[in-house]
Predict the structure.
Amino acid sequence: MRRFARVALLCLGCGVCSLLYGFSQLALSLEQEPGGGRERQARDPAAPGARRQAGGGWAAAGSAGRAGPPVHTSVADKYDYMKTRPSEKMHLAVVACGERLEETVTMLRSAIIFSIKPLQFHIFAEDQLHESFKDILDDFPYEGKVNYTLYPITFPTESAAEWKKLFKPCASQRLFLPLILKNVDSLLYVDTDILFLRPVDDIWSFLGKFNSTQIAAMAPEHEEPRIGWYNRFARHPYYGVTGINSGVMLMNMTRIRRKYFKNDMTPVRLQWGEILMPLLKKYKLNITWGDQDLLNIMFFHNPESLYVFPCQWNYRPDHCIYGSNCKEAEEEGIFILHGNRGVYHDDKQPTFRAVYEAIKNYSFGDDLVHSLLQPLELELQKTMHTYCGRVYEVFVKQLTKSIRDLYARRSKGR
């Protein structure tokens, strides 16, 4: 009897063990079902499905017919997985047409003088300017610091004429940079009339300050609403209180290409290449400043996507011709000078022209204090009869610091 009880107990123990093993195998198989894998794939930007949704190409520019994915698509709307890691090489783009050769070269010179990390210039220019650019740039003492690529001016074939005549010739080329430079992750676009008074590295570092939804950075069009253009005259939506200026535009182009934009044309969100032509068709009779107005409309509907940097990073005549109204520049100086309205080439704003001439005439390798800073200060003092001239110190405050920092870096490198 005892033997029978022992056998029965042994059989019962084996049965319990078999049952536990079966349950464990069942649980393991459920964890490995395809459904779990799909969810991880949707959250992983490197997964094939995520790459397909990143769509948007040059051929899509101006095409309004192709609908984007549903609004709730996580890859389209969430950028938590996208941590901006600025590359060692900084990419700078400019678009030059007409008589802008000298102005563009002077801008490039200002970028080279102070910058620390290597620069890659993307120069979009009319065909007749290419040889001149090559002749000049090939003579620059790059010291392995700078590379450049020349590109023709190109627009989507089906609407090239319309884009080219929008505002100034070639100005709207900047809208298509994310679609043309497909292998460039991040880019700083600047107008030809820009001058860097501190290293490009410093504005490039804003990429690392973007939050998970921001795709670009620009400065306000005005600091003072009483003299603002957009808030007084615009007949279309614009960003913020006074709009934004696109003369200096820092872009995470990977995010731009991936994003689906809210808009006032369709309940379906559209990608960058899909939204441009519909916006132009809807607002072309209401816009004054061409592509900049289209960018204002875009970011009006997608304000969470814009990082706004202070006015000293895009300092224009409007910041001083009616009295100083850029407090950051008063405190720290001008970081990037923007000579719009042609002020580098006439006598209306001699303060701006003095800075331009000083950088244009500086020879690489000369002493920056004696060959650039001191002559510039003397010229600026002659402009004190103008509103901008009365605050001429803001034009040299940061420049002085940039020169001091450059010499300090050189001393450490010896």
